[in-house]
């Protein structure tokens, strides 16, 4: 009986390690351009979104300025190097709901579709740059007051010439989430995960699904092109091309984009 329990604990520990490493990066210095990003082309982003603790932001207008100045080196760096904005763990919640939520997930049973809220800790608001269009955290995406439409196209080249073709289509804005932005692994051995309470765009976030079971987690890529209507009225087209780097580390996002569209 004792040997069986020990085996179960060892198996559970191994599974948790697999979960914890599933989206962990191998590059520690976020300020150096990763070596496997040298082939990133104009109209592509290469984002290390492996961190559980950080968000990364892109501003399409800033990228376009590099294009207009014909600053190829600056554009390459802006498409591959992103500053980490940590998820707050302390501070006061001004709205009574911003903070970290503890959720138990039935990882070893029915999977992460079964979960229960176990606690809440208020924190300060998520920091962000003065100007941004999209933010990335593992498989989560936010917009800055924008809205998103999933299209049937699987290539930017297939898109209609003008975004006016989508006039009248239903775009979806960001929605509040308390259980999808996994931020704290400290109690994972008990199936409890700390999640950030924050708005995310669930339509755009659907471009990468992490499913448990099975174990190790199964990643599903949705290669459709998404149209983002920014709060300034402009449009961008984005497509998740890949979610791994050249070494196979998951949550390295290669994103094709067209802006302005």
Automatic annotation (TrEMBL):
It holds the Pfam family HmuY. Keywords: Signal. CDD domains: HmuY. InterPro entries: HmuY. Residues 1-22 form the signal peptide. This is HmuY protein. It comes from Prevotella histicola F0411.
């Amino acid at each position: 009986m004792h040997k069986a329990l020990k085996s179960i604990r060892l198996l559970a520990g191994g599974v948790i390690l697999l979960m914890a490493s599933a989206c962990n990066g191998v590059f520690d210095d976020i300020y150096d351009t990763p070596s496997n990003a040298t082939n990133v082309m104009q109209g592509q982003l290469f984002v290390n979104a492996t961190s559980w603790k950080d968000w990364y932001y892109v501003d399409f207008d800033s990228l376009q300025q590099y294009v207009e100045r014909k600053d190829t080196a600056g554009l390459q760096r802006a498409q591959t190097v992103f500053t980490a904005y940590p998820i707050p763990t302390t501070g006061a919640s001004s709205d009574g709901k911003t903070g970290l939520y503890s959720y138990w997930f039935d990882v070893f049973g029915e999977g992460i579709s079964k979960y229960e809220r176990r606690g809440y800790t208020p924190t300060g608001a998520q920091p962000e740059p003065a100007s941004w269009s999209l933010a990335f955290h593992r498989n989560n995406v936010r917009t800055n007051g924008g809205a998103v439409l999933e299209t049937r196209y699987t290539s930017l080249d297939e898109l209609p010439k003008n975004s006016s073709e989508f006039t009248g289509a239903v775009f979806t804005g960001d929605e509040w989430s308390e259980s999808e932005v996994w931020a704290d692994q400290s109690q994972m051995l008990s199936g409890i995960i700390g999640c950030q309470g924050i708005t995310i765009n669930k339509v755009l976030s659907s471009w990468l699904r992490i499913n448990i079971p099975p174990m190790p987690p199964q990643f599903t890529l949705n290669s459709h092109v998404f149209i983002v209507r920014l709060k300034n009225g402009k449009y961008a087209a984005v497509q998740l091309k890949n979610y791994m780097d050249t070494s196979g580390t998951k949550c390295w996002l290669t994103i094709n984009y067209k802006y302005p569209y």
